[in-house]
Amino acid sequence: MTDGMTLAATLVSDHLAGARAMPVVGDMRASQILAHLAAHYTLDTPQTPEEVITDLFQLLRRGGIHASHPAYFGLFNPGVPPVAAAAATLVSALNPQLGAASHGRAAILIEQHVLRCLAGSIGYDPESSAAHFTSGGQEANTEAVLMALTHTFPETRELGIRSLDRGPVLYISEEAHHSFDKAAQVVGLGREAVRRIPVDGAFRMDLAALEEAIAADHAGGRRPMMVVGTAGSTASGSIDDLEAVAGVCHAHGLWFHCDAAWGGAALLSPLTRPHLAGIEQSDSVTWDAHKWLQMPLGAGMFFTRHADLPRVAFATDSPYMPPRHQVGDPYETSMQWSRRGAGIPLLAFMATMGWEGMASMVERMTLLGERLVNRLVAAGFKMVNATPLPVVCFTHPAIERGGTTVQSLAQTVDRTGRAWIAPIELPGGLPALRACITNHLTEDRDLDVLIATLQEAMGTSTSMG
Ligand SMILES: *Cc1c(COP(=O)(O)O)cnc(C)c1O
């Protein structure tokens, strides 16, 4: 075959099977990539599909960081299981249109099936809640703010925020994801409407401070609308006390959104589920399939217990759309219109794993996180976060003494191409190194590599510094 399809399948399958053999960080710089594009892609002479696929494969491999590498201890980006990549290929080739049920009947029902399974894991009633796939957590969090607004102030659907005499505000912790700044802006509340509540020593929302902030906003003529509890914060993996947040929301009549973009997977094991207790009382949940659930990018999920609300928020009267189908048209119940079947690879993966396989994946990765903590401590590093989930934030006495910096250490690790970790700043301006077990293929031997690489990096950077 010369259409590139067979070649792509071979390249992809070899790549995924041999992920550990390649450097975690590709060697091509942006300037080299630009020069290559300028030289080879003038588009003057047509190339064969096989030439193009071979070349693009090399560029993608050499010009970036590989989340598919088991020693990538990175930012929640997963290693994609082959069956998910295969299912994503089906989606690309058959290209079902999930905007309208008349076109994408099976695709829509496949997604609804997997969403109903996961709604049950949250503790929602699958029959009386609603869910859909999104482009990611940013879109799901934006929808959550819009749902809270539509629920609390139905008049804003037609008249917008300007119809309100008191500006709505929402509460997130200092450790919460910054997507809520953009969400508040997009929805029209403005970024000023986002109140960042201080955190305790374990980077969890300080609930007394939350109560004070709500009281201060009432007194100041604002309208408290929504509290976001984070279940697995991006920097430190901290989990807010979701039961307590639910209690505050209940007492004040506020929308309770739970941002479990990464941590949602912990719901799948009976060993980790208790850490998210209270999530079942939420009004809505963000949960990304493209993080801990190991899906290719572009697969977020939004859940709400208010089954009718998405239609209230999103339905339109469009003369050019086919008549409404019994399955329900997703363009009327979510932000996107034309939509890719991002959820189909998730059902494929979960079907090959089964519930037990999903639970043991979560447990194995969580245990690796615990082992990483123990090994780092044994190697002289100091933990600075405390979470039952596999995000490990740490420092070293030499960093605290100013002998080296987290940036320099992360860069040294990065340059070896053997592992990847992130330098971060925690609330209070605390610098730390962050290693997350984010790839289902990660094993003990990858922890060995990380520890050895870090120790070497400590040696070079402290002796140079
Ligand atoms: C990653 C993340 C987001 C943003 O999700 P995207 O899928 O990157 O858009 C939101 N909240 C949390 C807690 C996250 O970790």
Which structural traits does this protein have?
465 residues; alpha/beta; seven-stranded mixed β-sheet; 15 helices; 12% strand; binds pyridoxal-5'-phosphate
Question: Could you report the average pLDDT, rounded to the nearest whole number?
Answer: 95
Number of strands: 11
User: What are the distinct ligands in this entry?
Assistant: pyridoxal-5'-phosphate
Q: Any idea what the shape is?
A: globular
As a whole number of angstroms, the C-alpha radius of gyration is 23 Å
Strand content: 5-15%
Count every helix, treating DSSP H or I runs of 4 or more residues as helices. 15
The string of secondary-structure elements, in order, is HHHHHEHHEHEHEHEEEHHEEHHEEH
Largest sheet: 7 strands, mixed
The helix-and-strand class reads alpha/beta
| Estimated helix fraction | 40-55%
Strands across the major sheet, in which order? 1-7-6-5-4-2-3
N-end to C-end Cα span = 56 Å
Q: pLDDT below 50 for ≥5 consecutive residues: which ranges? A: none
